[in-house]
Write a structure and sequence with these properties.
Lipocalin; four-stranded antiparallel beta sheet; 5 helices
Length: 432
């Protein structure tokens, strides 16, 4: 018993020293790698809203993943330390450690209540509000993709070409009965086997789950029963992560074709011939579908028919970062941030921010997030945009209070006089 207490004390001291090291090194990090200056940002109508420092051991750790949605930013260090920030205020919500040092972790995903992270052969579910580990699950195979989730199930693609669906409610029941992680397979709802490795995280509509395999096919199965609904075959392997937006799925093939499919039945809505392979994920912003070919550049297609919007691709851009009402933020080959006009793709300006070498993609809101391997993160937005624009899920935006506008809401003179001088009710006829 005394030995256990001693070990726990030593672990506590080591953890405390790591946090102290991180905090004491923070000022040095800022001096070595300054934040974006207000002078440069103001020139383009931008402002720095907040910055933060992820918790890590600055002597050996580095940031591996930055994941975000409309409300939260999650950063994972190589040691397995996970730090969460509020996406709007920058408030550090929680810090927790999962897995073992330098164990392979995949990009986190979130639903409304939980954060899911794969580390090694384990899947962890963390509470969004507190960061506490709700449960951990043993995976049956080595994953080849990050997980995806809806409110009912979690989906994992693996190296052997399988996709597994796990029931979230069943997992919770097993955890409450203290049967995890030993009885992890009892939470498996179904497994679907394809002919080759799964190449990108599955996407779900709640009713249909779609996933791409190296066997040149996109599969769509029933989320409840795994029944095959349709299979879309291409002439070459699917080359980029597939995405779902609205009622459509977008995918690229090694044969240079880019497709827009109906997510429910697999019918081709339109296709675009890029001329070169597309290996980066496409992004949908408003009425634009942004594609990034392998040779560099970014093109904007009309969401309804796939025709090009911009006169020519913006060749200096190599990756999409975010989009505001007027601008597309993209990175160039040197790591700087390009500012592009959303209407025509022309370059508006450049932010020399190559030192921020971890640049997460944010197609969800109009906020630009930039980070460094040492854990420093900053959020940039358009001046005056106090409330974020939700590009993909506008229904999630909180209801805003109605503000009084003196020009439109002020009462008219006649109404004001009526309010100020109430008249006596007319006397009944018999009293006249």
């Amino acid at each position: 018993m005394n030995r256990k207490i001693t070990v726990l004390c030593l672990m506590t001291v080591v953890t405390a020293l790591s946090v102290v090291q991180s905090a004491s090194a923070q000022n040095n990090l800022l001096n070595e790698t300054p934040l974006p200056s207000s002078r440069i940002l103001n020139r383009f109508g931008l402002e720095r809203t907040w910055w933060g420092q992820a918790t890590l051991n600055s002597a050996r750790d580095k940031i591996m993943h930055v994941a975000l949605d409309e409300r939260i930013v999650v950063m994972i260090a190589s040691s397995g330390i996970v730090t969460a920030f509020d996406a709007e205020s920058g408030h550090k919500l929680w810090v927790i450690r999962i897995g073992r040092n330098d164990q392979t972790t995949l990009m986190p995903v979130m639903n409304e209540k939980q954060v899911f992270i794969v580390s090694g052969l384990k899947l962890y579910a963390l509470d969004r509000l507190s960061g506490g580990i709700i449960w951990e699950l043993n995976l049956p195979q080595f994953p080849s993709t990050a997980p995806s989730a809806d409110e009912n199930q979690i989906y994992i693609g693996t190296l052997d070409g399988s996709v597994y669906a796990f029931d979230i409610r069943k997992i919770k029941e097993l955890y409450q009965e203290r049967l995890l992680p030993e009885y992890s397979l009892s939470a498996q709802r179904w497994r679907y086997k394809t002919g080759a490795k799964i190449t990108s995280p599955p996407v779900t509509t709640g009713r249909v789950v779609s996933f791409a395999s190296r066997d040149h096919s996109l599969y769509a199965v029933s989320a409840k029963t795994r029944r095959l609904l349709y299979q879309f075959e291409t002439d070459s392997p699917i080359s980029a992560p597939i995405i779902k937006h609205g009622k459509h799925i977008y995918l690229a093939s090694e044969d240079f074709n880019f497709y827009c499919l109906n997510a429910e039945n697999g019918q081709v809505q339109w296709s675009f011939l890029s001329g070169v392979p597309i290996r980066r994920s496409p992004y949908v912003i408003g009425n634009q579908v942004l594609v990034l070919p392998e040779a560099g550049g970014i093109s904007a297609l009309r969401i309804e028919n796939g025709r090009e919007i911009w006169p020519k691709p913006q060749m200096r851009a190599v990756d999409f970062l975010a989009a505001s009402s007027q601008l597309i933020f993209a990175s160039d080959t040197l790591g700087n941030v390009l500012l592009l006009n959303r209407e025509n793709g022309q370059r508006v300006g450049l932010l020399p921010l190559a030192s921020f070498n971890v640049k997460p993609n944010n197609p969800l809101t109009d906020r630009l997030f930039l980070a460094k391997e040492n854990g420093l993160i900053v959020m940039i937005r358009e001046q005056g945009s106090d409330f974020p624009t939700y590009h993909q899920n506008p229904q999630k935006r909180p209801l805003l209070p109605e503000l009084f506008n003196p020009e439109t809401d002020a009462p008219k003179p006649a109404e004001a006089k009526a309010d100020a001088e109430p008249t006596e009710p007319e006397a009944p006829a018999e009293e006249k």
